[in-house]
Amino acid sequence: MSHPFFTYHGPITIDKISELLNIKINITSNSEIAYIKDLGSADKNSLTFLHSKKYNEIAKSTKASYCLTTDLLKDFLPKTCKPIIVENVLMATSIITSKLYPNSIEDEFDSKVNNIEKINFKNKVNYGKNVLIGENVNIGSNCLIGHNTTIEKNVKIGNNCKIGSNTIIRNSIIKDNVSILDNCVIGKKGFGFFPIKSKNLRYPHIGVVIINENCEIGCGATIDRGSMSNTEIGKNTFLDNQVHIAHNVKIGENTIIAGQVGIAGSSIIGSQVRIGGQAGISGHLKIGDNVDIAGGSGVIKDIPKNTKVMGYPAKNIREFLRENK
Fold first, then answer.
1. 9 in catalytic set
2. Residue in 279, 311, 307 with CA at minimum distance from that of residue 292
3. Phi, psi (deg, nearest 5) at residue 318
4. Helix (H, G, I), strand (E, B) or coil at 151
5. Closest alpha carbon to 99 in 196, 208, 16
């Protein structure tokens, strides 16, 4: 499978998977798996994974041909998806992903960057001093790039974009009319690893960051690229200063997020959502459309659409105020 940024080393056979995971698999040994994806985006001849009951409903309709899972969860898969039983689903997924995309694990600095004055962008970009550009970078017309900014490898930037000073971007797709202010880091790997005895095993990140049209990203924001899926910011969404968006997070359109908010991995934020300063959103949650989350709140469970919440744990604002008179 082609990937916009990471080198593909597949397909992979069932025999090879059996060898890598040190397990026996009751599937035709010469069967091949072309690529690995999450439950929702997987299609025929792909491998997916199911590690939690939270995703059982999605699992029932997955189009994947194979799934890494446990004996307790295998019955939630459709008959068209063959289970591969493992003890630790996420670790097995990490091992296979690392084999298919070996350069997706680490994020060393891009040693092949060049000063923008030495490459063909200098005539179409208004730039400051000490701007560095890596390989596989495309920049649209009428863009601005501030001082000491590095656009590392694997970046696509649309038209009329403004990139501030002291910012680092890699593994990202940035659409038209996006403003990214000073001191941001976008597209680095997420905080995914497995603690094992004397070391931590890093989880590969084959997703990218997608920032859609007319967004603004405030100073000091960090947006991690996805692990198995993309991290995505919807159209016309504004992030204040020092906001952190973890891997696989999806944020809808016209959403406003105030300063120092943190959103943990794989949470889905709807459209027209407003999040006050220093609020925290736990991982793997769903926040519906048109939700207001008051500043300083701690969200640890799903929030339905058209709801206003505050406090920790975050609850309906009327209930919170009644309990804290």
1. no
2. 307
3. -65, -40
4. strand
5. 16
Residue with tokens 């019955």: 75
What is the Cα–Cα distance from 152 to 31, expressed in whole angstroms? 38
Token code pair at residue 292: 């207001």
201 with 218: CB under 8 angstroms? no
Count the domains in the chain: 2
Among 104, 134, 159, the domain-final residue is 104
Low-confidence ranges of the chain (pLDDT < 70): 1-3, 29, 122-123
Residue pair 134/118 in contact by the 8 Å Cβ criterion: no
Query: CB under 8 Å to 318, separation ≥6 — which residues?
Result: none
CATH of residue 273: 2.160.10.10
pTM of the predicted protein model: 0.92
Q: Is residue 93 located within the same domain as residue 234?
A: no
Question: Is 3 domain-assigned?
Answer: no
Residues 60 and 143 in one domain: no
Secondary structure (3-state) at 11: coil
Coil, strand or helix at 14: helix
Whether residue 5 is contained in a domain is answered as no
- Count other C-beta atoms under 10 Å from residue 210's C-beta: 19
- Please tell me which residue in 3, 9, 247, 284 is annotated as part of the active site: 247
Give the CA dihedral 115, 119, 124, 127, nearest 10 degrees: 10
Structure confidence by residue, pLDDT tens digits, 220-265? 999 999 998 999 999 999 999 999 999 999 999 999 999 999 999 9
Range of the domain at 148: 114-323
Q: Helix, strand, coil: what percent of the chain each, to 5?
A: 15, 30, 60
